[in-house]
Amino acid sequence: MTDHRTLANAIRFLSIDAVQAANSGHPGAPMGMADVAEVLWRQVLRHNPRDPEWSNRDRFVLSNGHGSMLIYSLLHLTGYDVTIDDLRLFRQLNSRTPGHPEYGYTKGVETTTGPLGQGLANAVGMALAERTLAAQFNREQFPIVDHNTFCFAGDGCLMEGVSHEVCSLAGTLGLGKLIVFYDDNGISIDGDIRGWFSDDTPARFESYGWQVIREVDGHDALEVETALKTARKDKLRPTLICCRTVIGFGSPNLAGSEKTHGAPLGDAEIQATREAMGWTNPPFDIPEDIRNAWDAKTEGARVQGAWNQLFAGYRGRYPELASEFERRVRGDLPGDALRALDRAIADTQAESPKIATRKASQNAIKVIARLFPEMFGGSADLGHSNLTVWPDHQVNSVDNPSGNYVHYGVREFGMCAIMNGIALHGGLLPFGGTFLIFMEYARNAVRMAALMKQRIVYVFTHDSIGLGEDGPTHQPVEQLASLRSTPGLDIWRPCDATETLVAWKEALSFKGPSALALSRQGLANQARDQQQVADIARGGYVLMKETGDLELILIATGSEVELVMAAAAALGAGVRVVSMPSTSRFDQQDSDYREAVLPANCTKRVAVEAGHPDGWYKYVGLNGSVIGMRTFGESGPGSEVMRHFGFTVDHIVATATAQ
Length: 659
Ligand SMILES: Cc1ncc(C[n+]2csc(CCOP(=O)(O)OP(=O)(O)O)c2C)c(N)n1
Ligand SMILES: [Mg+2]
Hints:
The protein has 659 residues and is α/β, with parallel strands linked by helices. Helices cover 44% and strands 13% of the residues. Helix 1 packs across helix 2 and helix 1 crosses helix 3.
């Protein structure tokens, strides 16, 4: 009884019964893709359910994440730590089977999906990471990095613009081990897609340089198997396998209808489906023979065992490379390298160069790239503005697959979503640049990095109206406030070269994404003693202590710090300057420290930042003043625009005096 269809039906019924039990969810996609999944997971996927973190496992991404019961069923059936009770708890609070697959909650889920198109982008990142690491670490007869990245994507993923960005790049980069299955069912939530999605998808992907396998019957195991063979043979091009499928396949009255997309089938239709498919088992009951046929634990142990042997041989031949590989996969940063960064910070403070913080960031990258070979840089076509390039960076390409720098092209969202995939894959530490304003194109990928706690560094330059002539389209106003509202994201807006280097160091050790907001214009380096240099990492610290009794606190970030320093000098005794490069970091300090920096009994306070003011009232209080941006910017030379909006010593002095 363990024919392909019966095995696939195990997925179908686990999915429809779990959705029914939760009284919410998406049965249509798992029912439609069950036959494809059965062939991929039982015949091709190399993985070990007992060790979901094995570095050389094939990656599987369900980009159409609403079909989450498909992956939960697969993980359960093949032997991962997803029990039948977990499936019964589908979509319940604190369960391991949340509504959409969530990285970190369910072993075997490689990335959080649900925002359509981004899973596909993550898969591109994983495939790029795999190829890069293979080129960096594999040696003759020792292919220790050698796995595929498989992805399921639906109409929604392919309608999303980000799919264009990342699939275009994947074609150019020739990511031959990326294999995407298109769930071509002609249906999305609003119904028959011909009214809103009439692209020639195969031709579109061919134009990207992909191998496209057209017209595969997604319900015919043999056709799927043959397509997979063809896909894997082509090592130079990614492959799109276009699977014609029926959404809700098996449901006698609802198959092919959008009604199966996002609602339980209902008891009567489930019963009718059981009868039509000859599935006599009660809900959540999988017969022994079907269970055995799905169980991948023995085969998983075998394939990983073979790899372990290969790696043992590699270690014998290349002991240093082997331990470096293991370190990279673990994501550990070498302690001596971190100490070397501390020396660079001290040197920078001693030199105190007057440079733009984007330039200071480039200086930091130069040092960091030498110390940490996992650094994997890039920019969305602004490398020479973001200064993400460094003298001996190597451009990653088909001809140079070990390169540590990617030209992402003008694809901010694609870049950030790909970086999520790279970080999730492991072994590389991605950073990428664009203008702070165009972070908004990538906004949801930044949010996903925070949600998944992935270590990624964003080099967001041209961080305020101070960028000048390019005008209000390019001048960020509300972006810092927006980024600061994302939980789990560290934001740094350093005021000079020393703070920039500290921000980079902190970003490297933070278990999550960090955004660096950097100036286009040159900024004076501030004087600091050793304690002050050490306190930068606390996010906010006293940069200039008052003389005599404390009467007024001036708080600033980035380019506005030098202004408040000058204002403090003009105001005279009793004025303290607090530099606050990272509010997110400062908020995590204990109350004693925060009180020492911002004593509660001093209520005369002014915050100055060329960004949206609202967030600053929690530091200055309702009676404090904030000099910020309440409108869009203006086109003109940076210093004039700054003056126009009141970012002058005189205006700060007047505001403080009026307090
Ligand atoms: C970025 C984004 N926009 C909108 C949604 C809401 N949404 C979830 S599924 C879906 C339709 C997807 O259609 P398709 O991929 O064809 O899935 P199918 O109905 O075939 O399962 C939409 C609009 C989403 N999850 N992500
Ligand atoms: Mg569809």
